Amino acid sequence: MSNSTEKTIKSSIRIGWESPSNIALIKYWGKYGQQLPKNPSVSFTLHTAATRTFVTWSPDEKFDQPEVTLLFEGSQKESFRLRMANFIESVTEKYFPSLRKGHIQIETSNSFPHSSGIASSASAMSAIALCLCDIENFISGNTTSNDIFYRKASYIARLGSGSACRSVYPLMAVWGVDPSVYESSEEWAVGIESEIHPVFHTFHDDILIISPKEKSVSSTAGHQLMENNPYASARYTQASQRLSQLLTALRDGDLDTFGKITEDEALTLHALMMCSDPSYILMEEGSLSVINKIRKFRKDTGISIWFTLDAGPNVHVLYPEASESSVTPFILNELKPHCHEGKIIRDRVGTGPVKLC
Ligand code: DP6
Question: Exposure pattern of 21-44 as b/e (b: 16+ CB <10 Å)?
Fold first, then answer.
C-alpha cells in the first residue's frame, strides 16, 4: 500500500452515487438460497426515479463492526437505518472487511416524492452498493476495471434487494442465466445495452400513480408465497422461455412482440399473487381501468403503447419516442384522471448510475 493511501485512510472519506430505479419486463418472482432468483429477468433502467446516496466512512479502530447512522431526506428514519445497518453488517463481514473498523454515515434521498408508492429498494440498494464498492477501492488503492467494479456492485446490490442488481447498468440488464447473454449469472446482472435495437434506447415509461399507499404484501413476502404456489414450476419455465423470445425482439426492434410479452408478464405476475395461499390482489380499480383504456387506444389507433406493472397498483405506460406526440394527450386526458391526485412520473430509459463525489 502506498504512503498516500495510508495517509488518506486516517481521515474520513465521502463518496456519493445517484442510482436509478428499474422496471422489469420479465419479472423476478420467487427466490432461493441467498437472494438467488428462481427465474431470469430483464429490465429497463430508468432515468428520473433515482436515489442519491452519500456515504462518509470515518475510520475508528475502536469498532469491531461498522457503526451506521442514516439521514433520509434530512431526517432520521430508524426503520430504514436498521435495514441498512443489517445489510452493511452482513456485506462488510464477507466482502468489505476493511470498512468494519469505522463509522458509516449515510445521507440518502429520492428523486421521486415520498408518497408516490414507488419507494424503490432497487435504487436505494444499488446506490449504497456502489458507494461501498467505491470506498473499498479507494481504501485498498484498487483500480479495478469498470466491468469488474459494476459487476461487484451488482452482486452486492443483489444481496440488499434482488431487483437492485439490475440498476447499475445503462438502458437494460439481464439477471439470471440466458444462453444468449454472455456471462449472464444468477449472482449478478449483466448490462445488455450494446445488443439492444435503437428504438428501445429512447423508450418512455410514464408511471401512473394509482395509489401512493404502502403495499399490503411486500415483494419479499410475495417471493416467499411462490414457494407453495401450485403454478410455480410452470411459471419459472415460462419466464425463461419468454426472456429468450423477448431478447430476440429487443435485438430486432420487434415492437409488437416486445409489447405482447411485456403485458403478458405483468398480468402473469398479478395472477400469481391471486393464486397464492393466501391470495391477494395489489391492483386497484384504477389499474384495471387504465389497462383497458391502453388496450382500446392501441386497438383503435394502431399506436405503439403498452403497459407493465410492478408488484403494486401503479401502471407503467411504455411507448417509443415516435409515439410521444399522440400518446401524451391520451395519457393526460384519459389516464391521468385515474391517478392519485393526478400524479404521473414521466420517466424514460436511462444511462445508469452517476458518481456524484
Ligand atoms: C415484482 O427485488 O423488491 O419488482 O429481493 O425481496 O428485495 P427482494 O425483492 P424485490 O422484488 C422485485 C419484484 C418485482 C419484479 C422485478 O423487479 O423483477
Answer: bbbbbbbbbbbeeebebbbbbbbb
**For ligand 1, mutation pick of 21, 26, 28 (most atoms within 8 Å of CB):** 28
CATH number at residue 83: 3.30.230.10
**237, 313: one domain:** yes
Mean pLDDT calculated for residue range 346-353: 98
Give the span between the Cα atoms of 335 and 316, in whole angstroms: 11
Residue type, 246: L
| Same domain? 193 vs 51 | yes
Entry pTM: 0.96
Name the residue of 219, 243, 276 whose CB sits within 8 Å of the most ligand 1 atoms, as the mutation to test its pocket: 219
What distance in Å separates the CA atoms of residue 315 and residue 209, rounded to the nearest whole number?
Answer: 7
Which numbered atom of ligand 1 lies nearest the CA of 22? 17
Q: How far is the CA of 122 from the centre of ligand 1 (A)?
A: 8
Q: Is residue 354 part of a domain?
A: no
Cell numbers standing for residue 307: 403497459
Is residue 138 within 8 A of residue 55, CB to CB? The reply is: no
Q: Which positions ≥6 away from 255 have C-beta within 8 Å? A: 199, 249, 304, 320
Digit-coded pLDDT (tens) for 41-92:
999 999 999 999 999 999 999 999 999 999 999 999 999 999 999 999 999 9
Domain total in the chain: 2
Domain's final residue, options 197, 224, 255: 197
Single out the residue in 197, 229, 250 at which a domain terminates.
197
Distance 161 CA to ligand 1 centre (A): 7
Measured by CA distance, the residue closest to atom 12 of ligand 1 is: 163
How confident is the model over 226-261, as pLDDT tens digits?
A: 999 999 999 999 999 999 999 999 999 999 999 999
Same-domain status, 186 and 239 = no
Q: Domain check: are 8 and 51 in the same one?
A: yes
